[in-house]
Amino acid sequence: MNKYLVICAGLSVALAFSSCKSKESMYRQAYDKAKAQETAGNDNNDNNDYDDTPVVTPFVDTPVTDNSGYQNTENVAVTQENVTVVNGSGLKAYSVVVGSFSVKANAEGLVSRLRSQGYDAQLAYNSARNMYRVVATTFADKSSAVQSRSRLRNQFPDAWLLYYGY
């Protein structure tokens, strides 16, 4: 009787392991199906009402000029924040921000990198948002700041204008 029980238990274990074994062909079929959908461009996927493929639009900063050739800076977005200069000579009315960090050491690293490139970079702190703003250049007039921002966007695509209303 014990011999019979041991044999039955052994067969049960062997059967359990062999039935749970994954088949390589099943994985291969799933892979081939996914590859076919990818190459077809998901045209056969009618279950979704939207296309979740990310769209990447390159940034083009085209200055708007009137008939006299004067650059119109009125439509350029400017963000106004109350900031405190942590490291630098002081901000003028319009500044070009090239980085925002919650960790001061990261912001200081970018400031030193900019200074090594010849910029008079400064570090400002926005206590309301708990963010350190890295300012590459600062100007008294908006048009100069817009021109500087356009040049800096080659290296820092997310550069933006800060109005510092002291």
Explain what this protein looks like in three dimensions.
This protein has 166 residues and is of the alpha+beta class. The chain contains four helices and eight strands; from the N terminus they run H-H-E-E-E-E-E-H-E-E-H-E. The chain has a six-stranded mixed sheet. A two-stranded antiparallel sheet has the order 1-2. The longest helix has 18 residues, at 2-19. The radius of gyration is 30 Å and the shape is elongated. Mean pLDDT is 79; it is low at 42-62.
What is the terminal-to-terminal distance?
A: 95 Å
Q: Please tell me how large the radius of gyration is.
A: 30 Å
Q: Describe the biggest sheet? A: 6 strands, mixed
The computed structural class is alpha+beta
Counting DSSP H or I runs of 4 or more residues, the number of helices is 4
Shape: elongated
Strand order of the largest sheet: 3-8-5-7-6-4
Number of strands: 8
Summarize the amount of helix as a percent range: 25-40%
Instruction: State the assembly state of the protein chains.
Output: single chain
Taken as a percent bin, the fraction of beta residues is 15-25%
What letter string, H or E per element, gives the SSE order?
A: HHEEEEEHEEHE
- Low-confidence parts, pLDDT < 50 over ≥5 residues? 42-62
Mean of residue pLDDT values? 79
Provide a short characterization of the protein structure.
By secondary structure, the protein is an alpha+beta fold. The protein contains four helices and eight strands.
